[in-house]
Predict the structure.
Amino acid sequence: FQRLVGEMQSGKSISVLSNDKVRIDRLDNSMVKDTFRVYSDTISKHPLLNRPEAYRRLTRISKVNGQYYKFDLMDVLIESDDVYQGVTRAFIRLFIFLGLFVIAANTIFFRWILSPFYVSLQEIMFFNVKNKDGVTLPHTNTREFKLLNAFILKMTHNARKDYLTLKEFTENASHEMQTPVAIAKGKLELLMESGELSQDQLYLVQGANHSLSKLSKIGKSLTLLSKIENGEFSDNSTCNLSEVVRQNIDHFRELALLRNIKIDSALTPVVELPMDHALADIMVSNLIKNAIQHNREGGQIYISLNLSRLEVTNTGDAPNVPTEELFNRFKKGQGSSSSLGLGLAIVKKIADINNLKVYYHYADGQHTIRLELN
């Protein structure tokens, strides 16, 4: 009220000072006089909330610059609910801000403090036992990370050492085993050709020679599997799978004719695959060899190749184990089969390292091995 009087005394008009909360009316000087302040409560529409609200009202008549005026001032009452809501909103905003600040600060802090850990973790993820350089771990002053890095270095060193020992043993065992086996086979063959053996003795010698041949094949197959698992075939060039299949069909056609097995094929002229050529040749030759070995006399083989898959289908008896188990080592479809049970295991291993999917299906006397190329 005093502020309004002061502004009026300074020359401001009542139209400028009047608003939603202030009303000033000019009165006739002869009929009024100054009054005391009168306070009252009233209900009025809030201009912002657009709803009725409780107001506190001040009414007074006072003389300003020789003229009487009636002052009518109103202001909204602050209720306890409004105070509670205002305080609640303020605290919610404060807690949200503090929460976001703490989360951001912790994220930045832990990223900085844990950066050596993440670098070490990255090194472990890309560690390869064939890499001569080993792992490169960051320098850190944190005691726990120093202990972790020391353990990682020891672990990777032992892993590489064990890998090299196993690799050397596998190579040496394969090489050293083939030599005495070849010598023994040679002597047995000379003994069979001597003509001095009885029929029973010749049968026993032939059995021993067959067992040595089987032992030699097992050694070569296991060595091949070991080399594939160790990633020693690292040629990432693109091979023409159509040409590989065509060459293997020509190679095995005479072997199939000995059992009166007919080979038919439908090959897309050029199917290129990002794969080591030697592994592709081993994979296809094992598939065709498996189709011949597990076929029946006078049976059929059908080979189809397109841009999405390679399928080898052959006639034959039903396997006595689930087809998905035939990709395991030394698993055979028929107990009397002369195969080693390693051919499909090699195919599966080659498919796995080249991110290919291989499936085995048997129905109505037909064995089908499907290789998904993409």
User: Anything to note?
Assistant: The two ends are 87 Å apart (CA to CA).
